[in-house]
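Narrative of activities, Objective 1.

The group set out to show that a structural description can be obtained from nothing but a protein's sequence at a throughput compatible with the screening campaign. Below is one input-output pair from the validation batch, recorded exactly as produced.
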Amino acid sequence: MRFQSQKVAYWFFATCMLLLSLQIVYGFIMGFARIGFDGLHDYIPFNTARATHTNLLVVWLLTGFMGAAYYIIPEESDRELYSVKLAYIQLISWVVVGVIAIIGFHFNWWEGRKFLEIPRPLDYLVVVNVLTFLFNIAMTIWEAKKRSTTQLVLFFGLLCAALLYLPGMIYFDNQTLDSYFRWWVVHLWVEGVWELIMGGILAFLLIKLTGVDREVIEKWLYVVVGLTFLSGILGTGHHYYWIGTPKYWLMVGGIFSALEPLAFLGMAIWALNMYRKKGKDHPNKIALYWTLGSAMMSFIGAGFLGFAHTWPAVNQWTHGTLITAMHGHLAFWGAYAMLVLAVISYAMPNMTGRKLFTGMSGYLAFWASNIGMVGMTGALAVAGITQVYLERKLGMDFLVVQKEIVFHFIGMLLAATLFTIGITYFIVDFIRHGLPSNEAVGKNVGDID
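Output recorded for this entry:
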């Protein structure tokens, strides 16, 4: 690492590993409940496990983005972080709010709005926390010796993510209005401004890992940003099909949802093209695997599988079924989870000075987790298609259909076990790296100065 203050990122990454582990635990709780082993129901009902599982996903990814920003922004700005103390205060308060929210879920203290279940009083604390984070990052950039497109795209992605959290805090008595603005948060995050964050992090990693000229990589970044805004904003319409909004959203949502895969396709082509043009062989092949894998898997999960069921004529049958879960798992994994793991894989050797990427465990982590996730996606796809046919076409009762697809959840649990083995290898490697070292300051493994 080039600067002492970049060590702050380690503690955000460590928090990520803990939250990811908890998310997997709650995923298994739901998986076993699906096949009839619901012994924890009196303590952790399925709705509690689901809310905890999905919110942990959002929190650990946001924590990873913050850690990535604290690592990337000082390096891109060529200066120390504005305030290390403020960063630690922000992390501690972030964790405290998260812990209170998760405990609250188990006592039915929530709003009951998917992905935004966090209780309203905690919303205000989240806003204060994120503003603190953005202030720290903004001041680092403001006092920087240089500017870069990568740096600014990452910052504005984070800033817009914070601003788009606010519509979800508006209270409406009307269910349609509430759902309408809730999707401003959920959709415009994951298929809008989070893609800016993804583009900024991806650009940084490609610059570091391929040796391709920054100007070339950042020109591609402009293309990705343009495609994101072209499709992502009005693509929100595919959430408005069946919630009581005007019928024109069927056309608007359908057309622009069909364009949404272009941004992810652009990222995949961009990453592969930069790899082919690479001017050096970076020794950290594991970080390169995660980086290229993120670009490709995001196109499959977020792009292709999203497009496959967002056209209105298809979505009228698949909406609210396990087809959505199929798309969601691979989309979040490819676009954002793999990217956070890529940043961690790149940063840890630089922060600690330990080159563990030369061992086999990193490759096992990559392949086991990806094969496991593809297996889970496949199991959910088969279960979802079966559910659509039996429930929506033949008119069978919902609970009867759930019994018919139990076998597919057994397959999903087997794939989830392989996925967990891969993540375990990753976490073990993270622990083996140890704490950041002062001796590692001033240099990065394999980078060109």
